[in-house]
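G., the chain you wanted modeled:
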Amino acid sequence: MKISFQSIISKFSILDQKQDYSSPSFFFHFVRTNFILIKALTLKYLKRKVNVTLKSISLPGLFF
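Predicted structure as tokens:
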């Protein structure tokens, strides 16, 4: 399941029609209000990437 930033914004556009969602100020506001959520998702993604990387490094290492 691919979640794009645009799809997240489209959910918020219902809340406030006057807000300019393409402006940088909205982006920073969004990041600030959802910092914990974004951080959690990023850490989860990075942890998965690191695990895959470690597995791919350690497996050939066992044979040599």
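DSSP finds three helices and no strands in the chain.

Shout if anything looks off.
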